[in-house]
Structure formats: C-alpha cells, structure tokens
Design brief:
heterodimer, A: 225 residues, alpha/beta, two-stranded antiparallel sheet, B: 320 residues, alpha+beta, four-stranded mixed beta sheet, 9 strands, binds iron/sulfur cluster
C-alpha cells in the first residue's frame, strides 16, 4: 500500500500539559484520553451571545472541544447510546472561536477540516491551543469505539440533540491528525501549496465557461459574458 | 399484491444495512485506491477508512457519525399492486425511516430550514424524499435507500454548446478542486455528472448517477463511457487525495447521465457521493419473496429510452 511509513502516534490527555502540546508536529496521529465535550454554533451562541453560565467547569474538567454532533439516542431509562461520531466542518465557527478559547480555556479544538491559518496565528497561538482534525472524514465507527461512556448531555432541551453539549469520556479515541501546532503552522495550508503548484498543468486543455457567474468577478456591473 | 408489512420491515433492514455496511463495489474501489496511493497522508487516511468500514461492520454501528439524509428510490413493475396503495407505501417508508433512526441509531439530521425544528426522526416536510420509477412488465417493487452525506461536493452550472467538452472538464475540475480542499467533499468519491435536461432534472440525473450506479458500471453510449473514464483519470491527476492532502485519489468512478435539453443549452451538475457511499436495495415480489442486492439497477434501457413508444412484453408471458 503506497510508500507510506508509519506516522508518529501520540496518546494525549484532554487536559494536556504545555510540554505535551509543544511536542506535537503537523501530521502526527493523536489518540485522546479523558473527557471531551461537543460544542458548536448552538453552544457558542448560548454561552457567548446569550451569556448563559457554562454547565461544566471548564477547563478544569476538560480542555478539549469537539465540533461534533453525534448519532446518539436517549433510551426511556435515561441511558444514552452513541453509535458513531463524526466531526463537523470547523471553519464555520471562526467568529466565535477567540471568545470561546478565552471563556473555556480549551487547548484542543477537535473538528473537521481545520480553520484558517489566520485563525491559528491570531487566535489559537495566543491561547496556547492546537487543532486536531478527524480523519477521512468518515471514521465515525472508529471514533465511536473510543467512547468509554457518555457522561452527560447539557442544554439538550434548549438546543436539540445535534447542538447539545455532550460530555464524552474518551479512551484511546482516534485517529486524529495534528492540523495546527503550537506555532500556528497549518497542515492543510502546507499541502494546498504543494497541490496548487501543479494545478495549471491539470487545467490545460479546458476552457472557462462562456457565461461567467458572480463570484468569478466581484464587479457586480460586469456583464458576465 | 405486495403486503405493506413486508415493505416496512424490508425498508428498516435496508436502512441499517446502508448505514453500517459499505457497498462491496465502492469498498473494492477504495482498496484499489489505497493500494496505489503514494501520498503518505492520503494513504494514511484511506487505510484508516478501510479500518473504519471493518469496525462499523464488526460493532454493527453506523460507519459515519453524520448518517446523511435518508431518501428512497422506489421502482415498480407495470403490474405491481401494493396493499393499501401508494399512500400506504409512503407511510410505510416514513415509518421505517423514523423507526430506523431511533434503532440503529442514525443522527436526526433533518430540520426545518428556517425554524430548525427537529422531530428527531429524520422525517418532516419533504423528508425523506421518495422518488419513483417504473419498468415494463413485472409485479415486484424495488426499494432503494440512499443516505447521502455532505453539504459540500455538489454544484450546478448552465453551460452552452460552445463550452463543449473542454467546458465540461473545466467545471468538473473546478468542482473537485473547490470541494476537495481540506477534504470537504470527503473524497475519494463516486462522482455523478448530469448533463442536459432542465436545471432540476440535471440535478436529479447527476445525483442518481452518483448514488444509483455501482463502481465500474459504464454508460451504454460508448462515447459517454469513454468520457466517464477520461474524467476519472482527470480527477485523479489533480495531485490531490483524501482530505485534500497531496495524492492521486479523488475519484473512485465517474458516472454520466444525460437528458435531452433546450437546443441552446448544456446544463451540467456534479455530485460527489462521499466516503460513506451508503446505499442498499431489495426487490420484493408479489409472492412475498425478498431479494437483497447492492446494485440498484436503476438505469435500465427503459429509464434511458429515447423513443416515443416502448414495446411492452407479451402480456401472455408471465414475468417475474
Ligand atoms: S460527507 Fe460522508 S463521509 Fe463525510 S462526514 Fe458526511 S457522511 Fe461522513
């Protein structure tokens, strides 16, 4: 299979030390142990805009925020079954991430596809946070295996199943990839730069559409032809 | 007469199968991509996916936490009769969707677009979609469930005859590059391309091409078949692989479906069926037999017919 040599694997606590984080390199494969909580637009709006007090003691209980909505069901006896978990695309949460890092003390933002290099440099680095991306992104069954228990769910009624704050106890949960490190380096940006270099050749022999669309020009007076 | 209970039970079973078991044809495609992928990060991702499919099957849990939007494609023979009629059929599929959501479990993804109301069962206004097709002869019903994922990876554009094949290639590449960055389309995917029709049918054709044809299947028009192969190769030459990392696996297969369009236009749609290409189907016969299979066999000669009339099979001959 390919030429890949095994990637560096790291087991990381969801309350990592400074040294743990400093040792992470872009592309390292991470497996998490400890409590992590889901939080996305619903949680951010409620905590940051409506200023509702957090239902958990953060970051004392967990410094790992998972951008996720699990496939979970609550049984009549109150127990919770979580089958598979998959992250949701993080770039959409950019506007809340700085105040959230400040409020929650999160050091691990776990999600899908990373955030912008700008966000890493100006928001993550000052708060000592790194970004871990899920893999695939469809590795929901593997991640589901890493859930030891579902500790609880908060703001369930207010936000619904998908947006609620789920608290999960992880054991060797992964794989995740380090997509930004302590210095704000960005894995996706690095890969993208390599790919972009070859794109011109790939496009040779194709031609731009006869009728353009807004977005391909920002001049709204353009006739688009 | 097909009993309604049989439809609901089969539908529930199909939904579990779709959510948990990756179809063989797509799995073989990913295995092949993993074997040839040279990009080390991309290759790592593909191997993790293969492990994930195994884990899902072993544990009987959904392969991806985002379990997509369940929908139904229903096909019937010309002589099919269902107990309770079409209203009962739709009720059975809606019941099965709600029940399977709680039992598998699936993520209750479906919400009202404005009020975000969530019934926690993947059922609501227009959800699940139920689409129909018919075949000459036969008294069976085919149930096909597709749980398509992904907010990214689909696009539409009005092209014109002057755009020609180079314009088609450009839009194909644009779609893959745009949605492939950071792997938002969860590639490598089966890519469906709709050409022609009207805007709505063009989208429908592309989506069906992605979701209802198996890896390796070729369009019966040899020139379209050649274009399918060319597009797959083109997509895999971008230099991008899984998660938008450097690599060579973007497209597991390309499927093109066409529909006659306005003489001035050449509508084009692109649809990526993601790493969780969830589909499952079964045929229920009038005598109660149920046969499961992985190939939806949606696009028959009849579905692609060009002529005004279609010769019905001899009614004296009893068809399956
Ligand atoms: S696009 Fe497919 S593989 Fe990716 S997260 Fe959605 S359902 Fe899962």
């Amino acid at each position: 299979m390919g030429t890949a040599e095994p990637r560096r694997q790291v087991r990381l606590s969801t309350k990592p030390s400074f040294d743990d984080l400093a040792a992470l390199r872009l592309g390292d494969v991470v497996f998490l142990d400890g409590l992590l909580y889901t939080g996305r637009e619903g949680v951010y709006m409620r905590a940051l805009e409506e200023k509702q007090p957090l239902p958990l003691d953060l970051p004392a209980e967990s410094a790992a925020n998972f951008h996720c909505a699990p496939a979970a069901v609550e049984h009549a006896d109150g127990s919770i079954e979580m089958g598979a978990v998959t992250a949701t695309a993080s770039f959409r949460f950019s506007k809340w991430i700085e105040p959230w890092l400040r409020l929650s003390g999160a050091q691990l933002i776990v999600g899908k596809g990373g955030m912008s290099p700008e966000d890493y440099r100006t928001k993550f680095v000052p708060h000592g946070a790194v970004y871990l991306t899920t893999v695939g992104y469809g590795t929901g069954a593997l991640l589901g295996r890493g859930i030891k228990t579902v500790k609880g769910v908060y703001w369930r009624k207010e936000l619904g199943l998908a947006q609620a704050m789920w608290v999960i106890e992880a054991e060797n949960m992964g794989p995740f990839l380090v997509a930004s490190d302590c210095d704000g380096n960005c894995l996706f940006e690095r890969e993208n730069a390599k790919i972009s270099a070859g794109l011109k050749a790939v496009y040779e022999g194709t031609k731009p559409a006869v009728l353009k669309r807004f977005g391909e020009t920002d001049d709204r007076s353009d006739e688009l032809i | 007469m097909i009993p309604i209970e049989s439809i609901q039970i089969t539908a529930e079973r199909l939904m579990a199968k779709a959510a948990i078991e990756i179809p063989e044809d797509y799995l073989a495609g990913i295995e092949q991509a993993a074997a040839s992928e040279e990009g080390d990060l991309s290759s790592f991702v593909l191997r993790a996916m293969l492990e994930n499919y195994r884990a899902a099957k072993e544990d009987r849990r959904a392969m991806c936490g985002d379990t997509g939007c369940p929908r139904w494609y229903v096909k019937m023979g010309n002589e099919t009769r269902i107990a309770g009629g079409p209203v009962a059929l739709e009720e059975a599929l809606r019941c099965a969707t709600a029940k399977a959501t709680a039992e598998i479990p699936l993520r209750p993804n479906r919400v009202h677009p404005l009020w975000r109301t969530d019934h926690d069962n993947n059922v609501g206004i227009g959800a699940p979609e139920i689409e129909y097709g018919f075949e000459p002869g036969g008294s069976w019903i085919d149930l096909i469930t597709v749980h398509k994922g992904g907010l990214f990876g689909t696009d539409y554009r009005m092209l014109f005859p002057a755009d020609g094949i180079p314009g088609i290639k450009r839009f194909f590449l644009d779609s893959l590059v745009a949605f492939g960055k950071r792997g938002l389309a969860c590639q490598p995917a089966i890519v469906g391309i709709g050409l022609g029709g009207s805007k709505d049918t063009c989208m429908v054709l592309g989506k069906r091409a992605a979701c209802l044809r198996v890896v390796g299947d070729r369009n019966p028009d040899p020139k379209i078949a050649a274009l399918e192969e060319e597009l797959t190769e083109l997509g895999n030459s971008i230099g991008m692989g899984a998660m938008g990392f450097v690599g060579s696996s973007m497209v597991i297969d390309s499927h093109i479906e066409v529909g006659y369009c306005h003489t001035g236009g050449m509508q084009m749609s692109v649809h990526a069926f993601c790493l969780s290409s969830r589909r499952a189907c079964a045929r229920i016969y009038a005598d109660g037999r149920v046969e499961e299979r992985t190939d939806p066999q949606w696009f028959t000669d009849y579905q692609r017919r060009e002529s005004v009339r279609w010769e019905l099979p001899n009614p004296g001959v009893k068809s399956a």
